[in-house]
Specification:
5-stranded antiparallel β-sheet; 244 residues
Length: 244
């Protein structure tokens, strides 16, 4: 299975700077990885938090990944990478008063043959697109998702909720962090999408499906970013697409 990866980030139409950051890489034709972060806090804090987290996680993955790693070892590797990023961002914010309160969401994935290993904290998401259907793999760590899970509001009500952008978990905000992990089977022609909320808040599921329906994988990231901007572009937008 030959894996292809495309990615794009854009500051959108409204924000002065881009506080998103991402990195991608490959170990072979059949093993690739990606990490996407959406920073928050202060004038420069978000930029620093997301860039630092991406670097720490990328370095850990590149240093630790081995061929034929067991599933449990990949999970432990991602958990330790995100934990290391949390410590680094937290310590940096603690040491510099102007950076206090900064943090970043994270969603990262290792795709090996027909398996995707996904770790995340916050509301940056992973989706699987399969035969004109889209399924969200990650569950947002956010106030509105908690309300949905408790049955207090509907997903439709969440779309315009005043607390929509408040997340309940992020890298660098507390001394320790809880990481969620998902392992999913990939079929031939499945597409894995990682993104920040600059995409998911501005482009509907149907629009995502429509933009990638012709199979021209090299154009997918550009198209989705363009669609988010066409629909308002009120936030930074980052998209990573892994396909086979």
């Amino acid at each position: 299975m030959f894996l292809k990866i495309v990615a794009k980030t854009d500051k959108g139409n409204v924000r002065d700077s881009n506080q998103d950051a991402y990195a991608v890489g490959e170990f072979s034709d059949e093993v690739v990885w990606a990490v996407v972060c959406d920073g928050m806090g202060g004038a420069a804090g978000g930029n620093i938090a997301s860039a630092r987290a991406v670097k720490v996680i990328s370095d850990k993955i590149n240093a630790s990944y081995r061929e034929k790693m067991r599933d449990s070892s990949i999970k432990n590797m991602l958990d330790s990478a995100l934990t290391a990023a949390n410590i680094e961002v937290y310590d940096l914010a603690d040491a510099r008063p102007e950076l206090q309160g900064m943090g970043t969401t994270v969603v990262c994935a290792i795709v090996r043959e027909n398996q995707a290993y996904i770790a995340h904290a916050g509301d940056s998401r992973a989706y699987i697109l399969r035969k004109n259907e889209i399924k969200q793999i990650t569950t947002d760590h956010s106030i509105v998702q908690d309300l949905i899970s408790k049955g207090k509001i509907t997903p439709q009500e969440a779309e315009n909720h005043p607390n929509k952008n408040i997340i309940t978990r992020a890298v660098g905000v507390d001394k320790s962090i809880e990481i969620d992990f998902d392992q999913v089977d990939l079929n031939q022609d499945d597409i894995l999408l990682l993104c920040t909320d600059g995409l998911s808040n501005y482009v509907s599921n149907d629009e995502i499906i429509n933009e990638i329906s012709d199979g021209k994988h090299y154009a997918f990231a550009d198209r989705l970013v363009q669609k988010a901007n066409e629909n308002g572009g009120g936030d930074n937008i980052t998209v990573v697409i892994i396909s086979n």
